[in-house]
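In the laboratory, one determines a bound structure by crystallizing the protein with its ligand and collecting diffraction data. In a computational setting the workflow is compressed into a single prediction: the sequence and the ligand go in, and a structural description comes out. We illustrate the idea with pyridoxal-5'-phosphate.
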Amino acid sequence: MFQVNENYLKLPGSYLFSTIGKKVNAYSAANPDKKIIRLGIGDVTQPLAPAIIEALHGAVEEMGRAESFHGYAPDLGYEFLRNAIAENDYKARGCDIAADEIFVSDGAKCDCSNIQEIFGLENKIAVCDPVYPVYVDSNVMAGRTGVYDPKAETWSDVIYMPCTADNRFTPELPKETPDLIYLCFPNNPTGATVTRAQLQEWVDYANKVGAVILYDAAYEAYISEEDVPHSIYECEGARTCAIEMRSFSKNAGFTGLRLGFTVIPKELKCGDTALHSLWARRHGTKYNGAPYIVQKAGEAVYSEAGRAQLKEQVAYYMNNASYIKDGLKAAGFTVSGGVNAPYIWLKTPDKMTSWEFFDYLLETVNVVGTPGSGFGPSGEGYFRLTAFGSYENTVEAVDRIKGLQL
Ligand SMILES: Cc1ncc(COP(=O)(O)O)c(C=O)c1O
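The predicted complex, in structure-token form:
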């Protein structure tokens, strides 16, 4: 008789956004006349930029002609894209990353969740709390997290690094030594960032204790402040301790197209084993590449026109972020984030729990956000709003919240 992977049975509840979806659908079905504004899930709303659409059309045409048809993509991704990434995302920022250290994929979520496969099960992971749930859940599925404590909402074999108002939502070096450290800056959900000097401390620490940092930089395009690093490879020594994951979802609106990449420097080794070789093997065995059409669209992200158009798109969302942040501050809320990230992290009023505030906002002003507790125990008492809505909806949502008598 077959058996299932019992680790899956240990996962508590359903994925956060399914629970939210169910609640919103139930409310909507019972109140069909209400206009619900969704500032919950981190999906973009603006259409793809013209330069990207043009590249897509061009690539579709190519696929329709025998002489320019493309089948399976090369294992690591097309060179034209990897060169553009190496040049623009790394060399231009003074980071020493070569094109053959870049693995193109269909997004950062898959890479963040799959990367743990190349590490032993006895490795201990450290995560920020609150955290993007994928890092923890993928390790649960692999059987690396021990026993779940439903009361504390924590796993026995995970090191949690609380990110609270006291440390300005940035983690401190853990007391217990981890093997794998997940960091995400600018952060989802808190919108917090670290300075280059703070990130350097993490790199020095990882090199000292022999840990690997899994650095999720999905929101780097939203950085507006000078001393905030766009890549972990801006830090000295990162080539021997860090893997970086990036996405085209939030900087270029590819959530529906799907494109991302992972960087593994060749010096990153466990004894004589290069992690680059392990990931290359995994990629070659389990993945057949992002579509040619999408990789051509990705190349257009780095074109002159693409860059200019996407700068405007990011500015559009960040204008929303400012509106939310300033509006809620003026209304007396305690808010952070929204400066180097499209997320605003607000303290729930009147000691409401995150889910109480979720229900309250949904039912009184028909605005959907994300309960902070869904990202971990330290998220309790907080709430995340995203800047990814349209400007009109953002303004209306904030004005509705401002009208609440709290
Ligand atoms: C921190 C973080 N990493 C990765 C992703 C997923 O990116 P992608 O769309 O490339 O899979 C998200 C999406 O919301 C995210 O918030």
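The mean pLDDT is 96. Keep in mind that any predicted model is a hypothesis to be tested, not a measurement.
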